[in-house]
Write a structure and sequence with these properties.
Blueprint: E1 3-8, H1 16-32, E2 34-39, H2 41-48, H3 55-68, E3 77-80, H4 86-97, H5 100-104, H6 107-115, H7 124-127, H8 129-138, E4 144-147, H9 152-169, E5 177-180, H10 208-217, H11 237-245, H12 250-259, H13 264-289, H14 293-321
Parallel strand pairs: 1-2, 2-3, 4-5
Helix pairs in contact: 3-13, 4-8, 4-14, 8-9, 10-13, 11-13
Tryptophan (TRP) binds next to strand 1, helix 8 and strand 4.
Length: about 325
């Protein structure tokens, strides 16, 4: 069976953008592949090393989010990066063969250094971010890697490392292929990208009331004030959500908005109830795992042990290829 690996940094609660994007493919892929889903806590340190933020709590929160959307710990191996030391060994060995200019050319490296000016990111660890990510993938000899658009350059680098490794030491690793989630981007409440840092997200952990409140805050067409004003649904966040969650009604929503027979208050009420229906099973599952630290601890422990076993097996092969041990 082919294997899949993906990871997320434990930087806070997951939201609807994650649910309709990458989490959906996590759930689908656990049926068809040997799936490894990783909390990338070491990666979180590459940018937040000065003030590590609640990595342990965020890790537990991430497990609860994952479990609540239907990732099944019996099917997928859910593990924590720092618990599998083989990632560090693989990282070190890959660093031997990775030319520094490959890393310096990496567009994400250049962009993030610019964007996060308040942090000193001239570190070896930050430059080596893609090497660690490649190590994560290679340790499980993963064939497929579900990622967001922003991670594509990293995966391309991982493939280059695989080609170089295989050329130097013999065919050992499969070239990992990306699985891009083909889902229309969800806007945040204010129309920008949905993101925790913009404070515009609907979280998986939000209650039905919180969700309803957030829908009320969504930006709408500023020219439509009264119900009978003629609206421009293409300029409205509520409409973008109807498009995704309320497909059967979208033609009616747009038509009524444009001709002034639909008011924003009702339109939002309708959306809130559709969203809450979508989130109801997620909330139900969440209740099974919330406030059960022992249960989560056992799931983490079991996942870590299974990941370690797979990683040890790969590393024995790697050491052999590189004439070590
Ligand atoms: N860099 C990824 C992100 O920030 C997280 C990640 C770490 C990852 N290791 C990975 C993703 C390996 C896929 C495969 O989103
Ligand atoms: Fe948006 Fe609906 Fe108001 Fe039209 S009626 S502007 S789609 S909230």
């Amino acid at each position: 069976m082919e294997s899949v690996l993906s990871g997320m940094r434990p930087t806070g609660r997951l939201h609807l953008g994650h649910l309709e994007g990458v989490l959906k493919s996590y759930v689908e892929m656990q049926e068809k592949y040997k799936a490894f889903y990783m909390v990338a806590d070491w990666h979180a340190l590459t940018t937040d090393y000065e003030k590590p933020k609640n990595i342990t709590e965020n890790t537990i929160e991430m497990y609860i989010d994952w479990l609540s959307v239907g990732i099944d710990p019996k099917k997928a191996v859910m593990f924590v990066q720092s618990a599998v030391k083989e990632h560090a060994e693989m990282f070190l060995l890959l660093s031997m063969i990775t030319p520094v200019p490959w890393l310096e050319r990496n567009p994400t490296y250049k962009e993030q250094k610019q964007e996060l000016k308040e942090k000193d990111l001239s570190t070896f660890g930050f430059l080596g971010y893609p090497v660690l990510m490649a190590a994560d993938i290679l340790v499980y000899r993963a064939n497929k890697v579900p990622i967001g658009e922003d991670q594509r350059p990293h995966l391309e680098l991982a493939r280059e490392m695989v080609r170089k490794f295989n050329n130097l030491y013999g065919e050992f690793f499969p070239e990992p292929k990306e699985i891009l989630t083909m889902y229309p981007k969800l806007p945040g409440l204010d129309g920008r990208k949905m993101s925790k840092s913009y404070n515009n997200a609907v979280f998986l952990a939000d209650t039905a009331e919180e969700t309803e409140k957030k829908v009320k805050m969504m930006f709408t067409d500023p020219l439509k004030i009264k119900k009978n004003d003629l609206g421009h649904p293409e300029k409205c966040v509520v409409c973008s959500f109807h498009k995704i969650y309320n497909k059967e009604c979208i033609d009616a929503v747009e038509k009524e908005c444009k001709e002034g027979t639909r008011g924003c208050v009702d339109c939002k009420k309708q959306l809130a109830s559709v969203l809450n229906a979508r989130l109801a099973p997620v909330r139900e599952k969440r209740a099974q795992f919330e406030n059960k630290p022992d249960l989560i601890r056992d799931i983490i422990k079991d996942g870590n042990a299974r990941a370690c076993a797979a990683a040890e097996e790969t590393m024995a092969g790697v050491r052999h290829c590189m004439k070590l041990g």
